[in-house]
Amino acid sequence: MNEVYDTTPSAERVANLKQLTMIVYVLYAVGIFTGTLTSIVAIIINYVKREDTQGTIYASHFTWQIRTFWWSLLWFIVGWATFWMLGLGFLVWAADGIWVIYRIVKGFLNWSDGKPMPVPV
Question: What is the mean pLDDT of residues 110-118?
């Protein structure tokens, strides 16, 4: 049996995804000040709801958020390693923090303007 599904996102679905995308940006922003717990919640939401965003501008936002999380985690680990080995980890952490803030702000501004994120293919 061949079932055909309408893949066109409804206005209600798009509105829900817009709100969820904003919530995830807020969770990441709060994570900067409170530690990793809200960021872990955010990345879980990103992966659980990622498929639902396909075909909308919010798919690019979810990809942006996921990449921000993993690259930030990588640089946090590099900062930790260099802090203990070379004493330079604080600078790595500071650069990572500034980069994450930039990514959250840029993402939120594009979200607010209804624009997708410039995610490379």
Answer: 94
